[in-house]
Amino acid sequence: MPGKGEVLVEVRDMCKNFGVTVALDHVDMIIRRGEIRGLIGENGSGKSTVSSIIAGIQSATSGEMLYKGKVWKPESALEAGKQGIGMIVQEAGTIPNITVAENLFLGNYGEFKIGPVINKTKMNAAAKAALEGIGIGYVNPAKPAGFYNMEERKLIEIAKTMSGDPELFIVDETTTALSHTGRKILYDLMHKAAESDKAVIFISHDLNELMEHCDTLTVLRDGVIIDNLEKPDFDENDIKHKMVGREIKGNYYRMDQDGFSDQVVLKADCITTMNEILCFDLELHEGEILGIGGLSECGMHELGRALYGLEEVVDGKVVLKGEIEIDSAEKAFKNSIGYVSKNRDQESLDLNASIAANIQSSGYGKNRLFGPFVSERKERIYAKTQVDKLAIKCVDIYQPVRALSGGNKQKVVFGKWIADDADVLILDCPTRGVDIGVKAAMYQLINDMKRKGKSIIMISEEMPELIGMSDRVLILKDGKLSGEFYRSNGFDEHSLIECMI
Ligand SMILES: Nc1ncnc2c1ncn2[C@@H]1O[C@H](COP(=O)(O)OP(=O)(O)OP(=O)(O)O)[C@@H](O)[C@H]1O
Ligand SMILES: [Mg+2]
């Protein structure tokens, strides 16, 4: 019976403070062998904090932990890994300029040493086995990790953690970095671990995914455990209510059927990129929300990058308002195009800078006083407005973005472009890692942009979001268009999926 195995980890009366922020407030938790435990809670509720303390990444302010019946006080993630607790962290966990194999065995090179020298052949072979073990044998262990895209790097991290054969496998908000294939790999690993009497902690904002895969769910709010629920008692509305402390009902997508103008704002004319896109045509209209979907490797993320001038277009061109060719991100930005990257930490944020500085970076023009001087007051309002609108959980707007929880970082990126009031917004997985309450606010803001006549491209891996928000949906397959659907005709989920596969 799931959830009834022997106790593997116990957390007792744990508190964690960051200055004035109380991240965990007297948390008790028991994880048993054989269970997949889901953690759910709003952005900043303490999910990553409690997990990373169990995994030795940081230490608690007070409280204690037991692992296999003994006091558990890991000094580092490496030590925790060696003892059988491995975690896939929410942020990027690979180092780009060392090889895949070196990433896999970081801190464990000793195993491969002959005298003072590391036997690379042996290490690469061991890495190959670990990669094959999770079904990604196509990754070359001798290549630098940075050679691979974000999803592949996440899979490399998964291989790394699994190679330690952990007794407790912690997965923090990983699925949003993965496509359908990657998710399948991860779910299989989680279930296999639970079946072999190990345990899994699974963090996600996708309630359906949690209800499907978990045996138990722990709801956190503001660092406090609100409830623990067993699978037979899972109820979507009840869980949402417990998460946010108020009723969140039904549909938060747009309900209207309003159309868009004929005016073409952004046009891709038979564009081809180095890797994935082949002679692709696209027309984005004024006041249109254009959804773009597909499976992994379909090229949709690359398409977004190409439209913003981040990806070299080797043939064809991207043209704004019939006259301006967009061939660099600088030009896109100058011409009022905004872009939310799927890879937020590397491409969309300056982690060491403050929330204010990150949001303000899109608003120099608007907040100018005269000459090169900006109005500090205007800038403050510019940033504060977004922090309030999106309920960014922070001490104040001058806190570094690094100190924010994953979902709150995502809100900063989104806020930066909403504040900019750009004419064209290219959003690549904009609601990634964001809790349901804020998702609703983001959808509202996207719809407000549409109503103002702005044009939005929304690349997404979430079918409900594509169907719920788009005026038109393009489905990509192998870098080419495989289907086009209109809201006015009613979207049929099955037809969309059929075009993807
Ligand atoms: N290094 C840090 N410095 C300051 N505050 C921090 C730090 N790490 C986390 N916090 C704060 O602790 C609280 C809990 O954060 P945590 O990352 O655990 O949230 P979470 O539940 O994982 O959220 P999300 O769903 O957005 O990932 C937040 O208020 C966050 O801002
Ligand atoms: Mg988190």
Folded structure, characterized:
This protein is of the alpha/beta class and 501 residues long. It has a domain at 287-312 and 327-500: Rossmann fold (3-Layer(aba) Sandwich). The chain is 33% helix and 27% strand. The protein has 17 helices and 24 strands. The strands form six sheets. Strands 6-9-10-3-11-12 form a six-stranded mixed sheet, with helices on both faces. A six-stranded mixed sheet has the order 18-21-22-15-23-24, with helices on both faces. A four-stranded antiparallel sheet has the order 2-1-4-5, with helices on one face. β9, α6 (180-195) and β10 form a beta-alpha-beta unit. The longest helix is centred in the middle third of the chain and has 16 residues, at 180-195. It starts with 6 loop residues before the first strand and ends with a helix. Bound molecules: adenosine-5'-triphosphate and magnesium ion.
- Side by side, the strands of the main sheet go 6-9-10-3-11-12
Radius of gyration: 23 Å
Mean pLDDT: 92
| Count of DSSP strands | 24
CATH class assignment of the domain at 287-312 and 327-500: Alpha Beta
Low-confidence runs of at least 5 consecutive residues: none
Residues in helices, as a percent range:
25-40%
Query: Helix count, per DSSP?
Result: 17
Biggest sheet details: 6 strands, mixed
